Amino acid sequence: MDITSIGKTAPNSAIAPKSAGLNMDAETFMKLFTTQLANQNPTDPMDSADFLNQFSQITSIQTLTDLQKTMGDLKTNLGNLTQTTNALQAQSMLGRNVEFTDALGATRTAQVEAIRISNGASQLVVTGGTIVNLDSVRQIMSGTN
After folding, report:
1. Integer Cα distance of 56 and 49 in angstroms
2. pLDDT for 102-123, tens place per residue?
3. Considering the domain boundaries, does residue 42 fall inside one?
């Protein structure tokens, strides 16, 4: 096998690259493995332990890649859940008086008149049109004035 042909697909090749880079799944590895076995030099056979080690490494990489994708999905789902929880929490404050810390650090009390969602974050609109972030709320009163 000519070394310059590595990475090029021969017309009748049994192995086609899945994508650019080093992405290889177990099926592709097995095709490569069987092709290498079929074309190895009979006077200098390859060590099967090396192949098993390579297969173990490929399996580990694939498992880590799958885990990384799952963790990314989990992060997205948790972000969506947090947004939903915050929206429900803000909705429960509609019409109620809340004590909050304003932008100047003063403690104020006002009635929640509306809910606003900005960039996925729920905010309260209190009497006078002041926008209050949920993390600024210190207390929720049981009724209105």
Report:
1. 10
2. 989 999 999 999 999 888 889 9
3. no
Residue 28 predicted with pLDDT over 70: yes
Average pLDDT in the 2-17 region? 43
Are 32 and 76 part of one and the same domain? yes
Name 26's Cβ contacts closer than 8 Å, sequence gap at least 6: 55, 58, 59, 62
- 87 and 118, same domain (yes or no): no
Q: What is the mean pLDDT of residues 31-37?
A: 79
Q: What's the CATH number where 103 sits?
A: 2.30.30
CA neighbours within 13 Å on the CB side: how many for 85?
A: 6
Three-state secondary structure of 34-93:
HHHHHCCCCCCCCCHHHHHHHHHHHHHHHHHHHHHHHHHHHHHHHHHHHHHHHHHHHHHC
Residues 51 and 30 in one domain: yes
Q: Are residues 112 and 58 in the same domain?
A: no
Burial classification of residue 124, based on how many CB atoms lie within 10 Å of its CB (0-12 exposed, 13-18 middle, 19 or more buried): buried
pTM of the model: 0.52
Q: In this predicted model, what pLDDT tens digit does every residue of 94-104 receive, in sequence order?
A: 999 999 999 89
Domain that holds residue 112: 94-140
